[in-house]
Amino acid sequence: MSQVTHAEAHLQRGPWPFVTLRHETRGGQLLDWRARDHRKGLFRHRRALAGVRAPVWQTAFYNWIMGLVFVIGASLFMAGSAMALFPKIVAGLPGWTTNVTFFIGSIPFTTAAYLQLFQAANADQTAATAGTRVKLFGWSPESPGWLSAMTQFIGTVAFNFNTFDAINTPKGWAAQDLVIWVPGMIGSVLFLVSAYLAYIEVGHAHFSRPRRELGWWIAAINLIGCIAFMIASTIAYVPRAGTSGTVMNISNANLWLGAFCFALAAALSMREARHAGNNAAV
């Protein structure tokens, strides 16, 4: 095999069927193109050196605000979970306080998820072309980042229904499962799919060991949070005979853990946005 052929054989890689890492030579310099960094604009310093201005959705401010909105939503979910675990916290307040807290928290989740989807849909745009080619949702099934953002956004909408319906809980186990448990399960499944897609995007493999990259830890912590959400939603099912307080406490504890992981991952993404200039990927 010639040297050129060997180089071409290692030009790109990623978890099948996606390409998340490419080795490129530009101006005689070997550079790495990483799908996540490209989508979020974390190569801003390289682009600035090339004289190309980033569109607003790939700026540090946009990524920082998106992380902050996720933190707000996750914090409200943590508060709601704590209220459910320790009812004395809301003693003397209306009975719907806890469920309203969850619903209010679901709004920032959906808002931030759409900001992320919009960013992924327009990942290939530039400031010069953004005015005429901007996409509201996009269609990029070949991109794990776009698929992750889309499944997460749909999942947050499911949680909007799940938390809203819980404010005025219907009578009967079947009705509760239909309007509360089912949307919660759909949201949790979509969150888990989204988190795994984000994890393989940054790890460039279906399974990767811990890396000394903040992006990898953000994706891994978010994945752990989605697993906790999945556990919480699964055991929240209400059988005909009713559910015990112990089971609900386990569900709410996992809900709190999941929300904590989301808040931590989002806070780390805010730090990443402010320090992206140190990232050497393009």
Describe this structure in words.
- This protein has 282 residues and is mostly helical.
- It has one domain.
- It has 10 helices and 3 strands; from the N terminus they run αβββααααααααα.
- The protein has helices spanning 3-9, 35-40, 44-49, 60-85, 97-121, 130-133, 144-167, 173-203, 214-235, 245-274; strands at residues 12-13, 21-26, 29-34.
- Strands 1-2-3 form a 3-stranded antiparallel beta sheet.
- Helix 4 (60-85) packs antiparallel against helix 10, helix 5 (97-121) packs antiparallel against helix 7 and helix 8 packs antiparallel against helix 9 (214-235).
- The two termini are 29 Å apart.
Radius of gyration: 21 Å
- Relative helix content: 55-70%
Low-confidence stretches: 1-10, 277-282
H/E series: HEEEHHHHHHHHH
How many β-strands, per DSSP?
A: 3
* Strand percent estimate: under 5%
Order of adjacent strands in the largest pleated sheet: 1-2-3
The total domain count is 1
Q: What is the end-to-end distance?
A: 29 Å
Protein name: YrhK domain-containing protein
Transmembrane segments: 61-86, 98-117, 178-202, 214-238, 250-268
Keywords: Membrane, Transmembrane, Transmembrane helix
Organism: Martelella mangrovi
Write the SSE topology.
Elements: H1 3-9, E1 12-13, E2 21-26, E3 29-34, H2 35-40, H3 44-49, H4 60-85, H5 97-121, H6 130-133, H7 144-167, H8 173-203, H9 214-235, H10 245-274
Antiparallel strand pairs: 1-2, 2-3
Helix pairs in contact: 4-5, 4-10, 5-7, 7-8, 8-9, 9-10
Transmembrane segments: 61-86, 98-117, 178-202, 214-238, 250-268
Protein name: YrhK domain-containing protein
Keywords: Membrane, Transmembrane, Transmembrane helix
